[in-house]
């Protein structure tokens, strides 16, 4: 039987079909990817929808209403003043035409944002959370508040020259009247913590090592600021600041003067103590023992001078107790930090006039966290920082001081015969 012959059937290779199917699948896949890609860019599908951050039920405006209508102590604690005084402040700012409701933020909330920042020294994030507002909104109304309180008619109304008559504090006390009858207040420099760029740090580092701006300020005996000049480097001496202010028009009527410490020049406008003689109030106290008694006209003059001049330290103290922003070193432009000091001074005067609280004892020095505003300098250091005066003016000022010291002493020894 012949062998069987097998028939070989020729078939198309399987790979060709698979390739065709794979190619078609790849084309469809790429087309879908392209459609999704272009659609995502056109419609923004690739980015999740923005999620609001400040969604608290208690919005800023509702929180302010709750504060103003709630317990009186809450308003004092949160806004630094009573409800009635806050509404008076709001009405006064609106009446001047400098403040009005915006589209989304009422005038009341605008003022509250700025005042809350002054009182608490809060950061931007804390203010955003407190008032449920965006960072742009908070920044906008902080800048508006700086302009409103430090450069507008409100500032001019409340920070102004002292009245030209003998203050009641002097007139009613025989220790000072008639000797200081032409005195209109006290002047000094105060350091406020500052935020500056790294390349400027050395210029703003004060003698205690802190980064500060030096502020020259004067006040009357009602603890009201009468002059504020902020924005100078922490290394600037008080005497040089006064010289700059004087050249810029800072003045008093003829024959009137401010009391100043030994860092300032003794001149027509300023009366300073005798150098090298006991001066600061703490130097006259000996614990629980009786205070040291003056032994000559110069010591008596320095004692009386220190008892009056302490008013400027009290004014600084009350201002820094009211406004924590002066201790918080806010991260903002240096010009804005200077405006912040002026705004705090204007608001301080407003509060002192309408709601005088936070008084200090008459003879209290003010010392904040180991940063003494009355800190003593070496005599040579002080002399090197005082600007030069004309010989005629210096002689005239020294003669005035000597005459006053002797007149005080003549009255004092009548009550203390053992000193004669």
Can you walk me through this structure?
The protein has 420 residues and is an alpha/beta fold. The chain folds into 2 domains: 60-157, no CATH class; 159-419, no CATH class. Helix content is 48%, strand content 9%. The chain has 15 helices and 7 strands. It has helices spanning 14-43, 60-69, 72-79, 83-95, 107-120, 124-131, 135-150, 153-158, 168-171, 201-204, 238-247, 297-322, 334-354, 379-385, 391-415, and strands spanning 183-193, 212-219, 225-233, 257-259, 270-271, 367-368, 371-372. The protein has a 5-stranded mixed beta sheet, sandwiched between helices. Strands 6-7 form a two-stranded antiparallel ribbon. The radius of gyration is 35 Å and the shape is elongated. The termini are far apart.
């Amino acid at each position: 039987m012949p062998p069987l012959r097998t028939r070989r059937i020729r078939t198309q290779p399987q790979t060709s079909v698979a390739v065709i199917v794979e190619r078609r699948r790849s084309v469809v896949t790429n087309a879908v990817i392209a459609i999704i890609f272009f659609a995502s860019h056109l419609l923004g599908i690739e980015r999740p929808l923005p999620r609001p951050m400040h969604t608290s039920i208690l919005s800023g405006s509702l929180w302010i209403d709750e504060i103003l209508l709630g317990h009186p102590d809450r308003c004092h604690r949160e806004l630094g003043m009573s409800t009635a005084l806050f509404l008076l402040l709001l009405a006064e700012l609106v009446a001047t035409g400098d403040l009005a409701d915006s589209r989304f933020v009422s005038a009341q909330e605008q003022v509250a944002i700025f005042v809350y920042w002054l009182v608490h020294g809060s950061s931007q994030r804390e203010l955003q959370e407190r008032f449920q507002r965006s960072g742009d909104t908070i920044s906008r109304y902080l800048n508006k508040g700086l302009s409103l309180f430090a450069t507008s008619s409100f500032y001019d109304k409340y920070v102004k020259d002292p009245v030209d008559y003998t203050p009641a504090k002097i007139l009613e006390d025989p220790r000072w009247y008639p000797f200081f009858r032409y005195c209109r207040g006290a002047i000094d420099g105060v350091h406020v913590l500052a935020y500056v760029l790294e390349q400027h740090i050395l210029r703003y580092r004060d003698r205690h090592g802190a980064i500060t701006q030096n502020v020259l300020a004067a006040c009357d005996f009602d603890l009201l600021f009468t002059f504020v000049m902020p924005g100078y480097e922490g290394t600037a001496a008080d005497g040089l600041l006064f010289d700059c202010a004087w050249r810029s028009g800072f003045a008093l009527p003829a024959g009137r003067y401010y009391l100043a410490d030994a860092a300032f020049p003794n001149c027509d406008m300023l009366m300073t103590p005798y150098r090298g003689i006991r001066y600061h109030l703490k130097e006259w106290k000996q614990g629980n023992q009786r205070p040291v008694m003056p032994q000559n006209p110069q010591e008596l003059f320095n004692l009386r001078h220190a008892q009056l001049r302490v008013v400027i330290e009290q004014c600084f103290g009350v201002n820094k107790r009211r406004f924590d922003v002066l201790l918080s070193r806010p991260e903002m432009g240096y010009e804005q930090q200077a405006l912040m000091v002026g705004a705090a001074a204007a608001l301080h005067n407003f509060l002192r006039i309408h709601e005088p609280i936070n008084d200090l004892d008459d003879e209290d020095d003010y010392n904040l966290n180991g940063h003494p505003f009355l800190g003593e300098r070496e005599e040579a250091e002080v002399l090197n920082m005082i600007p030069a005066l004309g010989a005629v003016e210096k002689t005239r000022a020294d003669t005035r001081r000597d005459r006053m010291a002797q007149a005080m002493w003549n009255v004092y020894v009548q009550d203390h015969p053992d000193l004669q």
